[in-house]
C-alpha cells in the first residue's frame, strides 16, 4: 500500500504548524471559553489539562505513530497492521453484535442497535480497515457542517470591515445573526467561499499547500490573539472577567463537567478522525514525534486559554452577560468590541473574526486533506482531481447544513429518518450533526484507535515508532544522546500503559456518558 512517492513535510516546524492548525479551531476560540465559564472556571481548566495529558497526548501519539509507520491514509493504516488479527477482529465484531442486541433489548433504541449491528457485520467482512473507512467518512461529514459555521465566520469578517457590525445593541446583533444563519442562500455563499479556500490549499499538495498555508496562518493567528488579549486585559474592570474564567470554583465542577472536559479534549485535539494518522503519514522517519506532539498540545491549550482571556475580560468590562453559551461569539462579542473606548470596534471585530477564520480554515484544510489522502490512495485519482471531486461533493452535502441550520422546513424527510434512528430530534440539522459527531463518533473512534494501537498492532511496536535515532547524527558514546534515550525510554513506557489501559477506559466512560447510556 505504502507508496515510495508519498509526499512529506518539508520541516518539523511545518508539520507542527499544520497539526496545531488542525487542532486549533472553533473549539478553542468559541467552545472552550464558554464551557469553562459554565463549569467552574480554573477548576475546569485544571481538569481539562489533566485530560489532555492523560488521554489526549497518548491518543495523539498513537495516531501519529500509526500514520508514520504505515505511511498510509486511515484505511491503509488500519489494513497495514491488521494481518494476523483476523481472529481479534471477528471477536470485536461478535462483541459488537452482542452490544447491539443489548441496546435493542434494554434501551429499545432500534436505530442505534441496527447501526452497531451493521458496523459489526462490516468488521466481520473487512476487518479493521472498516475503522479507517469510518474515520475518513466522519472527517468528511464533520467538514460538511464545519464549512457552514466557517462560512458564517468569513461573512462576519467581511461585515466587520464593511461596517455591517457597527451596532452596540444585542437586538441588532441577534437580527444580523438570524438573517445570516436562517438564510440558506447566504449561508451557502459563505460555505462555498470556505470550501473553495480549503480546496485551493489542498490542491497544491502537502508541502506547497497545507504546510505553507499553516506556516503563514498560524503565526498570524497567534499575533492577533495576543493583541486582543492585551486590549481586553487593559480595559478597566477586566479583572472580573479573568476571575470568572480562571478562578477555580470546585463547587461548580460536577462529574458531568469532568466528562465534558474529556470530550472536549478529543474534539480540540482533532483526535479520533484519522486526521492525525494522515498528518503522521507525511512525516519522514527521522523526526521526533514525541516532542512535536507535546508542542502541538501546548499550542492548542495555550490558544484556548488566550481566547478566554481575550473574550471574558472584555465582556465583563463592557457589562455584557457571559452566560450566553454558544451565541456568545456572534451576538455578544461584536457589541462588546463596539462599546470599547476609542471607536475602534470595527478593528477589534475585524481582528477577532479574521483570527476565527484562520482557526476554522486550518481545521477545515486538515479535514479535507484526510479525505484527499484516502481517495488518492484507494482509487486511481491523482491529488488535483481528488481535491476537486471532494470539494464539490462535500459542498453539496453541506447544503443540507446550510439550509438546515435554522429549521427543518426543507429537510422533513431527513428529519423522519433521523427521528427513527435517534429516538427524538431536538435541535436543527446542523446542531444534531454536530452533537452526534462530537459526542458519539469522535470518542468512539478514539476508543477504537487506542485499543487498536494498544492491543492489535501492539503497544510495544507502536512504542518503537516513537523512538528516534537520527542516522549518522546520534551516537551511543555521547552523554547527551544517552540522556535522551533514557528520557525516551521512560516516556514511551508510560505511554504504553496509557494507550493500553487508561485512555481506553476513560474514553469508554466519556462515550457512555456522551451517548446518554450512563448518567450522573
Ligand atoms: N480541533 C478543532 C477545533 O478545536 C475541531 C476539529 C475537530 C477539527 C475535528 C477537525 C476535526 O475546533
Summarize the entry for a quick read.
The chain is mostly helical and 520 residues long. It is built from 20 helices and no strands.
How would you describe this protein?
By secondary structure, the protein is mainly α. It has one domain (12-82, 128-514): Hydantoin permease, CATH 1.10.4160. It is built from 20 helices and no strands. It has helices at 12-23, 26-38, 42-70, 74-80, 86-107, 110-126, 129-161, 170-181, 184-203, 205-233, 239-246, 255-268, 275-281, 289-317, 332-338, 345-378, 383-403, 412-422, 429-466, 479-514. Helix 7 packs across helix 9. The protein is globular. The relative contact order is 0.18. The model has no long low-confidence stretch (mean pLDDT 88). Residues 22-23, 25-28, 142, 267-268, 270, 273, 275, 363, 366-367 line the site of phenylalanine.
Essential attributes:
binds phenylalanine, single chain, mainly alpha, Hydantoin permease, 520 residues
CATH class: Mainly Alpha
Report the β-strand fraction as a percent range: under 5%
Helix content: over 70%
Residue runs with pLDDT of under 50 for 5 or more positions: none
Number of strands: 0
The helix count comes to: 20
Summarize the biggest pleated sheet.
Answer: none
Secondary-structure element order, as H and E? HHHHHHHHHHHHHHHHHHHH
CATH topology: Hydantoin permease
Structure ligands: phenylalanine
Rg, Cα atoms, Å: 23 Å
Give the termini distance in whole angstroms: 46 Å
Amino acid at each position: 500500500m505504502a507508496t515510495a512517492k508519498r509526499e512529506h513535510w518539508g520541516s518539523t516546524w511545518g508539520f507542527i504548524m499544520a497539526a496545531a492548525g488542525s487542532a486549533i479551531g472553533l473549539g478553542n476560540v468559541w467552545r472552550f471559553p464558554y464551557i469553562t465559564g459554565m463549569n467552574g472556571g480554573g477548576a475546569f481548566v485544571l481538569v481539562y489539562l489533566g485530560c489532555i495529558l492523560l488521554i489526549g497526548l497518548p491518543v495523539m501519539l498513537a495516531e501519529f505513530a500509526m500514520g508514520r509507520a504505515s505511511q498510509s491514509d486511515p484505511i491503509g493504516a488500519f489494513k497495514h497492521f491488521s494481518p494476523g488479527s483476523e481472529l481479534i477482529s471477528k471477536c470485536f465484531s461478535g462483541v459488537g453484535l452482542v452490544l447491539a442486541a443489548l441496546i435493542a433489548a434494554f434501551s429499545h433504541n432500534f436505530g442505534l442497535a441496527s447501526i452497531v449491528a451493521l458496523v459489526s457485520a462490516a468488521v466481520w467482512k473487512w476487518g479493521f480497515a472498516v475503522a479507517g473507512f469510518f474515520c475518513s467518512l466522519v472527517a468528511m461529514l464533520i467538514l460538511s457542517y464545519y464549512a457552514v459555521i466557517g462560512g458564517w465566520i468569513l461573512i462576519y469578517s467581511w461585515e466587520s470591515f464593511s461596517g455591517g457590525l457597527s451596532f452596540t445593541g444585542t437586538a441588532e446583533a441577534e437580527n444580523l445573526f438570524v438573517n445570516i444563519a436562517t438564510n440558506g442562500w447566504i449561508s451557502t455563499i459563505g460555505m462555498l467561499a470556505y470550501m473553495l479556500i480549503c480546496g485551493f490549499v489542498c490542491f497544491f499538495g502537502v508541502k506547497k499547500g497545507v504546510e505553507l498555508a499553516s506556516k503563514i496562518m498560524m503565526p498570524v493567528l497567534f499575533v492577533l490573539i495576543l493583541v486582543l488579549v492585551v486590549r481586553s486585559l487593559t480595559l478597566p474592570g477586566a479583572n472580573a472577567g479573568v476571575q470568572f474564567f480562571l478562578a477555580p470554583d470546585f463547587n461548580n465542577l460536577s462529574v458531568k463537567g469532568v466528562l465534558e472536559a474529556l470530550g472536549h479534549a478529543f474534539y480540540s485535539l482533532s483526535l479520533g478522525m484519522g486526521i492525525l494518522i494522515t498528518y503522521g503519514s507525511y512525516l519522514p522517519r527521522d523526526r521526533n514525534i514525541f516532542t512535536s506532539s507535546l508542542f502541538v498540545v501546548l499550542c492548542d491549550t495555550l490558544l484556548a486559554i488566550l481566547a478566554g482571556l481575550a473574550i471574558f475580560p472584555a465582556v465583563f468590562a463592557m457589562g455584557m452577560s457571559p452566560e450566553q453559551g454558544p451565541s456568545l461569539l456572534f451576538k455578544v462579542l461584536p457589541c462588546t468590541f463596539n462599546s470599547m473606548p476609542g471607536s475602534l470596534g470595527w478593528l477589534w471585530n475585524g481582528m477577532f473574526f479574521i483570527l476565527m477564520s484562520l482557526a476554522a480554515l486550518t481545521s477545515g484544510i486538515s479535514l479535507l486533506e484526510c479525505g484527499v489522502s484516502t481517495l488518492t490512495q484507494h482509487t486511481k485519482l491523482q491529488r488535483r482531481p481528488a481535491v476537486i471531486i471532494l470539494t464539490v461533493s462535500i459542498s453539496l452535502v453541506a447544503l443540507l447544513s446550510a439550509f438546515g441550520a435554522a429549521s427543518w422546513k426543507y429537510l422533513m424527510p431527513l428529519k423522519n429518518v433521523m427521528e427513527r434512528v435517534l429516538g427524538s430530534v431536538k435541535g436543527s440539522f446542523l446542531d444534531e450533526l454536530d452533537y452526534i459527531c462530537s459526542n458519539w463518533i469522535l470518542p468512539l473512534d478514539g476508543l477504537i484507535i487506542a485499543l487498536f494501537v494498544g492491543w492489535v498492532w501492539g503497544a510495544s511496536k507502536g512504542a518503537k515508532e516513537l523512538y528516534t535515532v537520527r542516522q549518522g547524527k546520534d551516537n551511543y558514546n555521547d552523554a547527551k544522546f544517552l540522556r535522551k534515550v533514557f528520557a525516551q525510554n521512560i516516556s514511551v513506557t508510560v505511554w504504553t500503559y496509557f494507550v493500553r489501559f487508561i485512555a481506553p477506559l476513560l474514553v469508554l466512560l466519556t462515550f457512555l456518558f456522551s451517548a446518554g447510556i450512563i448518567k450522573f
